[in-house]
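[SOLVED] Need 3D model of a two-part complex

Original post:
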Amino acid sequence: MLEVRNVTKYYGDSIGVDGVDFRVGAGEILGLLGPNGAGKTTTMRIITGFLPPTQGTVEVAGHDILEDSLEARRAIGYLPENPPIYPEMSVRGYVEFVADIREVPRARRQARVDNVLERLDLGPVQNRLVGNLSRGYRQRVGLAQALVHDPAVLILDEPTVGLDPKQIIEIRSLIRDLGRDRTVVLSSHILPEVSQVCHTVAIINRGRVVAIDSPEHLAGRLKGAETLKIGVKGEPGAVIAVLEKIPGVAKVTRIDGGSEPASGPVPQAGAYLLESYLGCDVREDLFFNLARAEMPLLELRPMDLSLEQVFLQLTTEEEGVELDG
Amino acid sequence: MGRSLLKVRALMRREAGVYFLSPMAYVFAALFLLLTGYFFSVMIMSSQYIEMRSILHNMVVIFLFVAPVLTMRLMAEERRMGTEELLMTAPLTAFQIVLGKFLAAVVFWVLLLAATAVYPIILQVFGNPEVIPILTGYLGVILAGSTFLALGLFASSLTDNQVIAGVVSFTMLLILWVIGLAGESAGGVTGQVLKNLSFIEHLQDFPKGIIDFSDVLFYLSAIAVFLFLTTRSLERRRWS
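Solution:
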């Protein structure tokens, strides 16, 4: 239903989105997860045709967003980052207006508008001016606007922002409901939201998709492989060289920032993440190899990474942790 | 085609709604009628002529100041409020958006003029004015005013700052209003071209009861040019 192929967007010289590539089928919910400024909104704006990509293509329901823009836009319902409301209109008037520009047939308009107002619990405020509503209501008006034409593809930029906890639960279940027979892409920086609602999570950082998988797999992938957090005293370069020679070690990452000079006179204790291949217990070799190299092992702790930690690692470290198992 | 018209109508009605749901329309109408009423009374009393010629001209001059204020928010506001994103991702072409907004402003202008129909009615009660020059005069005023609105809409599409949009459109309007003066001093072919570009020049014949096809064509093509430029300005934003 939705194919994003190698989309890149430059803003002048700076890069907004870098080679984003994914496809989402009908009945699937994809979550874009990433810190603020990671490129989630830019990605969504490109999908909806609001921004043209510098490179790459987007296909919505079989229509290219640039070549066949009107047809592609017909298939999309879009909730932008800030609900695009007209403060001087009534809730009902606003949703009717969107129904008109979204080509809902006149005969069905009334029923569609009633339907979305009811689904989003906006009935009681339908005659109030949108500008006088609270943030949570405006967000729901924004959702109503995205749903009124019953689109096959829904693009929701931070759909639960500004809602209270009860509403968040309702909107999540609404999105799950909608996702049964539609294609849904939502963005969020809240992990539980993504893991509860989405079938697939794309972790996005600095404009790049650093991992894409089901929430269970993302969390499981790093659990499956052993990860040890160790503290070793010694010159970091030499320590890493020793660690990497240990059979079964997949990857060594220094995690304490490395703020002290690499060639300081006194060897400092450093913390490292040691990933080993599945089924390899490297702890004995680790102990003996470090002992031979006269690098005291100060700490040894097995790590279980939650999705939260995966997310933090992927998005806060320069290199990130390679998720190849 | 029917679908396009329905969408343009929805856009137009929303935009016109902004005028009439806010105090804006009523403030404008009140001030416009106050000023034109003043000119009407003063001119009738001083000249004793039963005609609308100078008052129609005055309406256009007043509208020269009103049009930038009416149009400055049309595009700029959408951009500032983020509702541009709603319009640009809906199955609407840039031209449909532009047309809807332009028509809303024209509707407002025509309704404002409709309120001034009270002046010819007063003339009718107390005298026997010629009807044809009044009707053709109004046609000229509608055309000229619509051209101002198209220009203002274009200025509004250039920025998300309403004040800048207003100042730009007022300056452009004023220049095109008085460009005939430059034409007179330049003389020759250049002078003729400049004179023909002037908004005021093409307004002279309408209140005399004459509909010159070239005058009508001038205003219609000026409207078309500004609507086209506005459309391009919207599309360019998409590609920048």
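Edit: The CA atoms of residues 144 and 209 of chain B lie 16 Å apart.
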